[in-house]
Amino acid sequence: NEVYEASPSDALLGAGDGQGIEIDALNKNTLVQYNYLHNNAGGIFMWCCTATLRGFNGIYRYNISQNDGAKHGVIDWREGHEGSMAYNNTIYLDDSVKREWLKNGYTGGKSDAKFWNNIVVNRGEMHATNFNEQEIDYERNIFVGFDAVPSNDETVIQDDPMFVAEGTGGKGIDSLKGYKLQENSPAIDAGINIENNGGKDYYGTLLSDGKTDIGAAEYVKPEEPEKPQKPEQPEKPEKPEQPEKPEQPQKPNKPNTQQTKPQTQNESIKTADVSPIIPMMIVSIMALGVVVFLT
User: Fold this and answer.
1) Are 115 and 140 in contact (CB under 8 A)?
2) What predicted TM-score, i.e. pTM, was given to this entire model?
3) More confident residue, 233 or 216
């Protein structure tokens, strides 16, 4: 739910109303959870009981309050309620109005409450001298912008909770991403584990890691983008089979050097030319002999 600008008339404010949501008298096991409260004049938390009109186990959890007023204190403390709790709420208060932390005070042990795992960031003027530690058990809270803090919160943190963007909530329950935690927030894993806590934070994040954060937002580490997969290397083509080498032709046998070389053309001609000359020479010699003989 979203509740804003609850600002009744001054007469009703005098009666103690004007919070965004209150747990009224005669309630038992009441849960106020997953609400966005802003710009309500009266305050934030009230268990509206009396000594004769009592209430039991009223719980505020995983709510976000932005710039609510405090005409009846951030907490309007009344007698007559038992087993009350306010845990894992996120409260941001700007400097638009002056505020008081606790209205009324000690009831003589007629009321009790646990105030655990809450973030309260005050950026304006805050009157905080009374925390009523006798009846309110403060544990594992973050208080920023306070001159004093509860004395019984031995683990109180006063460092900035490192919201993503405080004070940026608008109209609509989905306008509150600015109250998520940054990676190095001191609120991460710093809270008390509480049984039966509803199982999820304001934003719907499951409370499953067993390490409770402080405030209404459970930190979730952003998922890293998946690295692109390397493309598969194409298979190397198989080497083609090498063709078989052709057989080398056999070398011809060398000719037998002892065989008679064949005659060349010129040699044949010379032989042919000489053969008819020989008989002519014989005839000439014979004729010459005859001539000589005659002479």
Assistant:
1) no
2) 0.75
3) 216
More confident residue, 264 or 235: 235
CB 194 within 8 A of CB 226: no
Please choose, from the candidates 73, 72, 85, 69, the residue with its C-alpha nearest in 3D space to the C-alpha of residue 23.
85
| Residues 6 or more apart in contact with residue 31 via CB below 8 angstroms | 59, 61, 198
DSSP helix/strand/coil, 142? strand
Residue keyed to tokens 């298979």: 235
Q: What's the token pair of residue 34?
A: 């997953």
Measured from the Cβ of residue 137, the count of other Cβ atoms closer than 10 Å reads: 15
Q: Taking the mean position of all CA atoms in its chain, how far away is CA 231? A: 25
Closest-CA residue to 91 (of 222, 206, 212, 202): 202
* Number of other residues whose CB lies within 10 A of the CB of residue 219: 20
Averaged pLDDT for residues 126-145: 95
**Sign of the torsion angle spanned by Cα atoms 38, 40, 41, 46:** negative
Is the confidence at residue 21, as pLDDT, over 90?
no
